[in-house]
Design a protein that fits this description.
This protein is α/β, with parallel strands linked by helices. The chain is 31% helix and 25% strand. The protein contains 10 helices and 26 strands. The N terminus and C terminus are likely disordered.
Length: 435
């Protein structure tokens, strides 16, 4: 075992051992709320251990801005060991080999770690849907390393790109969901800056979406506005595009057409990281998500919980909750309060189950942003930008993240004003739209 911080708990009573596997938005929210809940209850007979194979937690919604060098890694990430000291949990850096939930054991390398309660927050990874991909051109946008790879490729374009003999794209983004749309928008803005600051040719951006419209999970008005913004920035938006395979820089479509791109960003689907389970009887959906009850407990297994992308839970309207940060954060907070309430009695109290509250979410599009609220309320223009900035500021992990985010964002706006580019350039009037 390595990467530990000293436990802040000490008691003559037997400890309740809680192990959290994975530390994304759900895991962070759970640990933060546990500290608050246990502190309010005056409890110290709980030992909380987080196991993760990552040293840092990343605020993934801001990765596109890191990829285009608007923000630094210090703005969008936090050291888990430092968070452990602040939030009162122990941290183990390591890759979990397997978990036996009924036996109450986690196996990490040669170590066997016992627990009374386990919380799975292992998140998700890319889903290539069985597609054949060869070469090293495909990059995801899931962590800091991915953003750095994209940034290096964009900087390299100032040197290596010349006018091609045939149509070729600098960047191809596969997937027109929120991640893909945001990446395409920021990258298109960055390439425009490159064209303005160098005489070298910079290829464009193409966005490929398999369904009939981008942002297919959002209200149609949000899709329409986003597509207009992307097209004005020079993004070639194509829908109903099915990809057959990828070979190096070649994207082969089912239609027989082949596209050529220097960098290919994959944003066309995720799958839950549930391969660690060795416990029989765990119920999973067709997509591999773990079925949980209203208290986020894994069906059929006591004191074992799942939150975030790996958990499948139907909301009050019968729809399965989506895999996004907002759901994971609310699940983590609810579960921490639920477990803290159950520990003194040794059993769960009769309480209302988890219910997701949709407070709205933002879709940053470079110099533009959309806020999509309840009942398909859509804010665009300046109101959307302000709300997006405020939400990101509030949701960042630490005060250090917030200060850096504030300073770097203001510095970027200052540069824009000096360059005479303070307008949004989208042609989209600010306002409120409801469908």
């Amino acid at each position: 075992m390595h990467g530990h911080t000293r436990s802040v708990y000490s008691s003559t009573r037997p400890l309740t051992r809680i192990v959290v596997v994975g530390f994304g938005f759900g895991g962070f929210s759970f640990c933060r709320e546990m500290r608050r809940s246990l502190g309010r209850a005056g409890m110290r007979d709980v030992d909380l251990l987080v196991i993760s194979d990552q040293r840092y937690i990343t605020f993934t919604p801001l990765l596109p801005e890191l990829a285009v060098s608007r923000l630094s890694a210090a703005s969008v990430s936090a050291d888990i060991e430092s968070l452990a000291q602040k939030l009162g949990f122990r941290f183990m850096l390591g890759k979990v080999d397997s978990i036996d939930m009924r036996a109450g054991k986690v196996f990490v390398k040669d170590e066997e770690i016992e627990f009374d309660i386990i919380v799975l927050s292992t998140g998700s990874s890319d889903n290539f849907h069985g597609m054949s991909i060869s070469g090293k051109k495909v990059v995801s946008l899931r962590d800091i390393e991915d953003a750095y790879v994209i940034a290096e490729k964009l900087l390299g374009s100032q040197i290596t790109w010349e006018m091609p003999d045939e149509p070729r794209y600098q960047v191809a983004v596969i997937g027109g969901g929120q991640t893909g749309v945001e990446a395409a928008s920021f990258l298109a803005e960055k390439l425009k800056e490159i064209r303005q600051t160098t005489s070298m040719y910079s290829g464009g951006v193409i966005l490929l979406e398999a369904s009939s419209r981008i942002l297919s999970r959002e209200p149609e008005v949000a899709s329409e506005i986003s597509e207009r913004i992307l097209r004005r920035r020079g993004v070639d938006c194509r829908t109903n595009m099915n990809i057959k395979n990828i070979e190096g820089s070649k994207i082969h479509l089912s239609s027989g057409e082949t596209l050529d791109a220097d960098t290919i960003i994959w944003a066309a689907g995720i799958r839950p990281n549930t391969s660690l389970l060795v416990t029989p009887g765990v119920i999973q959906t067709e997509k591999g998500r773990i079925v949980v009850d209203a208290h986020l407990e894994i069906q059929g297994i006591k004191n074992a919980y799942a939150i975030g992308d790996i958990a499948s839970l139907k909301d009050w309207d019968g729809k399965t909750l989506p895999e996004n940060a907002s759901v994971a954060v609310q699940e983590g907070r609810f579960l921490a309060m639920h477990i803290a309430n159950s520990i003194p009695e040794g059993k769960h109290r009769k309480e209302t189950g988890f219910r997701y509250r949709d407070f709205g979410h933002v879709i940053p599009l470079g110099h533009d942003s959309l806020f999509i609220g309840p009942k398909n309320l859509v804010l665009t223009g300046f109101p959307g930008r302000v709300i997006a900035w405020f939400i990101h500021y509030v949701e960042l992990f630490t005060n250090n993240n917030r200060i850096r985010f504030l300073c770097e964002s203001l510095a970027f706006l200052g540069r824009k004003e000096n360059e005479g580019q303070s307008g949004d350039g989208s042609g989209i009037p600010p306002g409120i739209t409801a469908h």
